[in-house]
What does this fold into?
Amino acid sequence: MTAVRCVDLCKTYRQGDQDIKALDHVSLEVAKGGFVCLSAPSGGGKTTLLNAIGGLDIPDSGEVYVDEQRIDNLSKGDLADLRLRQIGFVFQAYNLIPVLTAAENVEFVMQVQGVATAERNEKAQAILKEVGLDGLENRRPAEMSGGQQQRVAVARAVASRPALILADEPTANLDSKTSDELMELFTELNENHSSTFIIASHDQRVMNYAKRLIRMLDGRIVEDIDQRAA
Amino acid sequence: MRLFGVLLQLAWRNLWRNHRRTIVMLSAVSVGVWAMIFMTALTRGMVDQMIVDGIKTLPGHVQMHDPEYLDDPSINNLISMSDDELEQKFKDSGIKAWASRVKVPAVITSERDSRGVTLLGIDPVAERDLMFVDYEEVEGRFLNDANDKGIVIGRKLSETLETEIGKRVVVMSQDPDNDIADRGFRVVGIYSASTGAVEEAYVFVGKLTAQKMLGIEGGTSEVVFVGDDYRNVDSVYESVVAAVDSTVVVNRWYDVDTYLGTMMNVMDGFVLVWVVVIFLALSFGLVNTLLMAVFERVREIGLMLALGMKPASILGQIIIESMLLLALGLAIGDLLAIASILPLTGGIDISFVGEGMEMFGAASVLYPKLYSNDIVLANVVVLVLGFLASLSPAWRASRYEPVEALAKVG
It folds into this structure.
């Protein structure tokens, strides 16, 4: 079963007088329950690919399928619905809404989805406990460390049980110990919740945790390694 | 409904994210709303007083005359109905109060001076509810009945004529044969009015005495009717019209005194313009505050869009934030206005500008009038225009592309 399928994706950005090929005929398939790391140096195209998969950016050409549904031709409203119901996001920084507490941030997506109060409270409490933030439910982002904030973001991403979780440089602002803890958490959630994880990162630790490593360079996939076999 | 709950929660918390800015804007809205309502109450009070004084001074709510009288208010243009006929027609008409008058131009002379005046022959009992003169406040006394032989003059006129209570004056006018009709009167009372011009213009004698002096026994110049509300005189007008024929004309007060009528109509327009002008000044601050709030939260808005919130919800969130700010400002402004107007309802002495005010018929004491309609108007204008002013920043926020917004350097 395929969670994500990209067919011949191209995306070019204009920077000054230059055209930058962020995606150059990229094709990719990720199976359900996969744990994939997209690795590339800065400007290699990994974030662009992640954004195209998440419906945050539309490729110039090619096709993107999430759970066998083509998404590159959807309207803005339909893409918002897709992100709300099927995809969980963890970004590099500025992941949380500052005026909401940890629990409210976790509940945010469920609240927008229309989940009943009792149900989302219960889910939020459970997932915060699972990510090791028991007792910090009422803290606002400014009152938490970077690692704790990333854990809240992860909790929010998985709380509504999306089929696909996309993380863009989730460890970039974390120290090595916190990065390891976060990756342990991702691995655990991937195994326990059967969610598909696609993580864009050039952090070697993240690459080590991934079951599959896809290396990109100048907008092209240059290497695709099944690390379970290695 | 749940989505509205999220938006309300976010809007409320974002409002207090920058306390200082919110409090400054809240103060501006509150003071603006206070100014709208307070100044409207003052102006309403002044115009109401002018109209009520004007109506009490002469026109009543509805008047009836001979068709020629308004163009030529002479003794020859009398209503072709006797006192008895008028009494029969209007005794049980249901109209709150009415009175018939003799009203002709005249000259009053004392030992010292003379002046042109309007001579009013009245029945003081019938006029009590129509008259601008408070009988109990008259120096000396007011007329006792329609057959009273004394004369009541205004304070300013008494000063001009250098006369006083107990002294004699002579009143001269014209009889129906164009001969001089005159009579000596003893001054029995001196009244005070809201303006000196009124005190100089009108002198009162008994109606029967005036009729005898002018040789028009049973004759009447005008009949005045009063209802419950000067703003709505149609029912009185229709009752009078139904009771008379085409030998007389019936007019509403604002047809007779077009200046006062125009004042009433202009006032409603003025209140709206005043409220809108103040809001326009406020709206610059409001739009600026919202734009600042939006610019500060570009990445946050990008995050919400990325997580699946629709642009319409972002639009709604900013508008709710604006409406909350305005609603709070309105509540404070309304309370401030009510708290500052209520203690002044007993009247504000503006006699230091009294002469200037008198030029356009205003009294020297101003009674602010707080109408619920004016409060509602101010609140509705602020909310409706506030909503419109919020659309631009809210629209801007909802148009962000999530990827670009998230990439903004915060």
Notes: The domain at 2-95+163-226 of chain A is CATH 3.40.50.300 (Rossmann fold).
